[in-house]
Amino acid sequence: MEILYTKFELLTALLAGGLSGLSKEKFDEQLAEIEAELVAEFSVADRKEFNQRVAEHAGVGVESLVNSPNYELLCDEYGKDIFQKLVKKMVEKMGITEIVAWAMIAQAKGLLRLV
Predict the structure, then answer these.
(1) Which of 2, 28, 54, 95 is the most buried (most CB within 10 A)?
(2) Domain that holds residue 103
């Protein structure tokens, strides 16, 4: 996962009150809605289904994908797209900025610590 902001920028965005307009209840509710949407859209049962989704995203057939020397790169691109969609949904539903959304993701993934 590639975040286009520095840790300092992410921390500043969170500490500057990027979430101040949301109550805890509203925040939790909206985050649960976003999570449910993403799980429904991106969850896969097995590697075969994952490969089908990556191939579709890349515009190639599954066999071409699996045999491609760029297999890992194409999988990474698919993953990046999922995170971009997550950020977009967070911005739209929660009324936060993109940098605050990335900061929340970084914090959730253990890449950013407030203390």
Answers:
(1) 54
(2) 1-12+43-115
